[in-house]
Amino acid sequence: MRSAYPERVYYKWLVLAAAALALWGVGYHSDTLTTAGLAAGGSIAHAQEEADAPARITGITVSRQEQDTQVTISGSRPLTYTVVKLQSPLKIMVEIPDCTMEKTMGPGGIDSDLVSEVTSQALQKGERTYMRVEIALKKDVTYTVNAELSDLIIRMAGSGAPATTVEQEEPEASPAPAAAPPAAREGRIVELEVSTADVGITVVADDMINTYNTIQLDDPVRLVIDIPGVKDQLEKKVYSLQSSVVDKVKVGQHPGKVRFAIYFKGKIPAYTIQKDNNKLLVLWSGAAPAGKQALAPAAQAAAAK
Q: Is the whole-model pTM more than 0.70?
């Protein structure tokens, strides 16, 4: 009869080998998890650094769109901006806070009947760094500003003749004086709509809104929007918003324009302004809206308080 001793020995060694393999597998898995955790932590830290870093202007391009000229300012992420048009010298000035630029990236030769040159420079205002982009104009223009992802697009259309003097020959006979053209109709601001989703306001006129100017002001923090060539027909002059971002909106008539001042509860958030025929949409971020934007007249919003 054969002895069972060798089988017991073999079985014992097999159990020991299986235990060793199991222990080795646990250690390897632990090391893998630790390494993966460190890698994930590093990725999170890197993403946080990217989020905290100032935005960067990565390029400025000028293009022609039929009779219009478009200046596109590309950023590393969506840009907060202020745009204002100056008359002397004639130019559009864009200021972007908390932004950097490795080097001047304005285009050299510009093929445009409206724009003569585009320049950029860094500015320091207190503790904040700004990038200023100046678009020198050959003639007066109307313009719109739209933000598309991380691009800021300024589109200009000619609205006046260039500021040059042209000599004309003296006519042989003076023609009869022509009848004076009728005065241009002045538009009216007829309604202010407030988003029920806390994402913006809409200014409504009774005619096309051709242009607007914006500027950011501190103490108190507010965004000012001027619409030239219109009259204020709103009954209310102060609108209190049920908003986590905006405190109130003030409306005032100024010589040749209507001014809207949006007072924010904290820093001015990222915002966009869009023209849509007789409407001007001012949209901001910072709240947590859900679903599709809904707009309601400000009077209804005030009555709901």
A: no
